[in-house]
Amino acid sequence: MNQLSQEKVRSIVQRAITECLPPPNAGRLTREEAIDLFHSPEALSLKNEIIDAGRKLWARAYVDGNGGNISARINPEYVISSPTLCSKGDLRLEDLSLVDLENNRICGDRKHTSEILLHLEIYKAVPQATAVIHCHPPYATAHAIAGVIPPGNLIPEMEVFVGPVAISPYDTPGTKSFARTVLPFVKQHNTILLANHGIVCWADTVTHAEWYTEVIDTYCKTVMIASQLGKPLKEIPPDKIADLLAIKKSLGLPDARFAADEVEKPLATAVKAAMKGSSNGRPAQADIDRLVATISTTITDFLDKHS
């Protein structure tokens, strides 16, 4: 391909990426804009979803007293949080607050949960996470206390929606060091056992995160019951596990088993690098330039091979 054609490809890619990106200050709302966002119809929908999830967690005895916490990301920089010292079965709209990723409360009459630090670390580490639930379902928490990872490959729903489970080390709840205990695991696991504490789940919606709490606790309960029957637990055949993993991959869910058989492609690496650290929804110009160069090279190589 000649130099003129290469420049044309680069120009087209540059224009396409620029048009698709948010404006330079997207996500950086003023305090007044953030408050307006908190009182918007979009926020109301998320608040009601948080309240509904809280009632479901309480009804299933996954939270006791004032335990557990729920959050939902409404903007790249802002999170709606449940309050401290409140039963999740009693949540009301006025109990919720708006918090930024640095744990500053923007608005809301009640103090937000101290364990929001755990949520914020997950949001920073996993861009696709838009909801986080931390709670104490008894069977999953029993595994966390015993330091026992439940065996895998036994029930299809577990393999698709949760998969292999990790246990993060214990630290004092509500501290930054506690929040960071999940970082080695959170990109490959949407559900993590918290040693001597409970579990945390992230998802694309609050409802889905609540589903994962149900899946993991029911699974742990079922495995404990099956283990008492005096028979070896029969695993799903490996080829059928492969079918389940294909379903999981199509749903965009993470799984530690994907890393072993997937080689990072240059284009995917460039996209991830461009978005890394983009807290305001827009990459740095140098990262955009590298992305344009990588995509342009991929296109010109393809055209050269098929010319």
Q: Oligomeric form of this entry? A: single chain
Q: Please report the total strand number as a whole number.
A: 8
What's the overall geometry? flat
Find the structural class using helix and strand composition.
alpha+beta
Q: Give the overall pLDDT as a whole number.
A: 90
Order of helices and strands: HHHEEEEHEHHEHEEHHHH
* Strand order in the sheet with the most strands: 4-3-2-1-5-8-7-6
What fraction, in percent, of the residue positions are helical?
40-55%
Give a short summary of the structure.
45% of the residues lie in helices and 12% in strands. The chain is α+β, with helices and mostly antiparallel strands and 307 residues long.
List keywords for this structure.
307 residues, alpha+beta, 11 helices, 8 strands, 45% helix, 12% strand
Walk me through the structure.
The chain is an alpha+beta fold and 307 residues long. The chain has eleven helices and eight strands. An eight-stranded mixed beta sheet has the order 4-3-2-1-5-8-7-6, sandwiched between helices. Helix 7 links the parallel strand 6 and strand 7. It is flat, with a radius of gyration of 22 Å. The chain starts with a helix and ends with a helix.
